Amino acid sequence: MLERYYHSVTLDREKCKGCTNCIKRCPTEAIRFADGKARIIAERCIDCGECIRVCPYHAKVAITDPLSSIKDFKYAIALPAPTLYGQFEKVHNLEDILAGLKLLGFDEVYEVARAADYVSAFAQREMEKRRGNRPLISSACPAIVRLIQVRFPELINNIIPISSPMEVAAQIAKKTFCEKRGVRAEEVGAFFITPCAAKMTVVKNPIGMDKSFVDGCISIMDIYGPLCSKIRRVTSAKDLQTATALGVGWANSGGEGRALQQENFLAVDGIHNVIQVLEEIENGKLSDLDFFEGLSCIGGCVGGPLVFENSFVAQNRVRRLIAKAKGTPLSEEEIDKQMSSIVWTFQKEIAPKPVMKLAEDLSVAIKKMEEMNAIFEQLPGMDCGSCGSPNCRALAEDIVRGYATEMDCIFKLKEKVKSLAQEMIELAEKIPLGKDKAGGEVGE
């Protein structure tokens, strides 16, 4: 039985107009149409948020935690993603943004960018130990990890099993806060300020661990307005900003590779671009690379579906703000200390999610594959999406699985109607005319 798990990306059926834009862009073919409305196949969805971007009616939405959820804990810590720094037009001081979060009601702020400094150091050490399976693949973007589970399970062993900066930040922030304040861990909630839906999903259904150290995710879009008003009230701020320029740079595509100090790495952003490269890796064409950084969103995390600012504008702002990052590089002693006190590697193996399988039994699967190919050969190959499936091959698969019929294809339906009409004409010509009551032939 396929595992079912929480999804942040959901459908508002009332807003869906049946335009089929989303089925064309979904990277895992997780959306179908029936009765004029979209339907998300939960097992296939990776919460990349591509459907949120392309839906003109805002029928696809991401469920995140409201700002008020911080009141569920006696103490609340904000974990701002580096992407947050690129959202504000007239803010040129990173400290002001962090101080604004405290004015919103958070008791403490810990930069996820600082945790990225740690993760970069952890990953460097891990890469030195791993000599095979090149290129090694970043585990930072949960949507890409889910994509590999669903579409490229052969590449799972290439993923570096390192906890994300978000998870590392939550652990360090809680531990430090509890030690400083003398409070119990269960009294403290750590909230990630997220640019994407995939982070919300991975908090509810962690990758490589049983339970997330993060207690909630608040979208940048939701917090932007209230935070803007608080930033204007900041009079002085200091000692909150601790990340280095390399840590802040994780917000943009290529930032992780640079932080890992990799010379032979490839950074690709945009889910469909990443798929093309993963196909190349799967076919053994990029084995000369040491590291692959794949990010679901255009531009990197700055292009997440839950951000306020245009991704290209935010990317440029982050690039300029990097120069103002005041954090100092981590010492070997600091790295060793955190490695011994937090969970920085995956505790569980990443399992494939074989949602593309036609059957568990190999012989049955082969038979269904042959049937699917035969059906596909009979379809027009227009990939118009009018049938409710994203393309003709997906329709053939849906037919084999029993979710659709050939008549769902408007071209096949047209052929059938035309054939039936011709049969009716031929049948009418064969039937002798009857007599009416006056003795005349019917039809005169």
Shape: elongated
Using only C-alpha atoms, the radius of gyration works out to 27 Å
The portion of residues forming beta strands comes to 5-15%
Number of helices: 16
- Average pLDDT, to the nearest integer? 91
Outline the structure in words.
The chain is α/β, with parallel strands linked by helices and 444 residues long. The chain has three domains: 9-62, Alpha-Beta Plaits; 67-341, no CATH class; 362-430, 3-methyladenine DNA Glycosylase II, Chain A, domain 3. Helix content is 39%, strand content 10%. It contains 16 helices and eleven strands. The chain has helices spanning 21-25, 50-54, 94-103, 112-129, 142-151, 165-181, 197-204, 220-231, 245-248, 255-259, 271-282, 311-321, 332-341, 362-378, 392-401, 410-430, and strands spanning 9-11, 31-34, 37-40, 60-62, 75-80, 108-109, 136-137, 188-194, 216-219, 265-269, 291-295. The strands form four sheets. The protein has a four-stranded parallel sheet with strand order 6-5-8-9, with helices on both faces. Strands 7-11-10 form a three-stranded parallel sheet, covered by helices on one side. Strands 1-4 form a two-stranded antiparallel ribbon. β10, α11 and β11 form a beta-alpha-beta unit. The chain is elongated and about 100 Å long.
